[in-house]
Amino acid sequence: MKKQTIQFARGLVLLPFFTASSPFAMLYEMNLFSNYAVVEESVSLAEERAGKIDAYFAKRGMPLEGHGAKFVAEAEKNGLDWRLLPAIAIKESTGGKFACGYNPFGWGSCKIVKFKSWDAAIETVAHNLGGNNPVTSRYYNGTTTEEKLHHYNGSVVPTYTGEVLEFMELIEKTEVNKDRA
């Protein structure tokens, strides 16, 4: 009987913590709503960035138009600047116009990898530049954008890093046509 009384008392003590009117439940709900606002803001920022990439490609008739969301998602997933991969694609293949197959990045000098789609190329290069491939991580893991670019092609072409950084700025400054989006 004493054990049942103790369990009953514990239940009474804990009951307010689990009811909707308790301060703890209200704090829990407020935290959910604040997390929702952060997620919503993050989604709109990702959409804005994807729109800028797509608008830049569209204005110039580049085949990678429509892949802005993929560029942004893979950049976020791999800890990259959202403008880096599109800028490399612009520098290497004019946004896919002069790509070797589905390789707009010139990855592996277009000799070691044959991608099955633009998305596969974006995923692979983002994974590598993010430092997540053990084979290439010594070049890219824990490096700045400038260092990544230097290892990517800047050691061969001295102006490479600066040129890609300029494309990154142009992408960021691109106006998104709201009627199109």
Report what the structure shows.
This is Mannosyl-glycoprotein endo-beta-N-acetylglucosamidase-like domain-containing protein. The chain is an all-alpha fold and 181 residues long. It has a single domain, classed as Orthogonal Bundle (Lysozyme). It contains 8 helices and no strands. It has helices spanning 2-18, 23-59, 68-78, 84-93, 118-129, 137-140, 145-154, 160-173. The N and C termini lie far apart (69 Å).
How many distinct beta strands? 0
> How many structural domains are formed by the residues?
1
Enter the CATH topology name: Lysozyme
Task: Note the run of SSEs as H and E.
Answer: HHHHHHHH
Structural class by sheet pairing and helices:
mainly alpha
Q: Portion of residues in helices?
A: 55-70%
* Multimerization state: single chain
Name the CATH architecture.
Orthogonal Bundle
* Uncertain parts: 13-20
Strand content bin = under 5%
| Broad shape | globular
Query: What is the number of helical segments per DSSP (H or I, 4+ residues)?
Result: 8
Structure in a nutshell:
This protein is mostly helical and 181 residues long.
Features:
single chain, 181 residues, mainly alpha, Lysozyme, 64% helix, 0% strand
Topology:
Layout: H1 2-18, H2 23-59, H3 68-78, H4 84-93, H5 118-129, H6 137-140, H7 145-154, H8 160-173
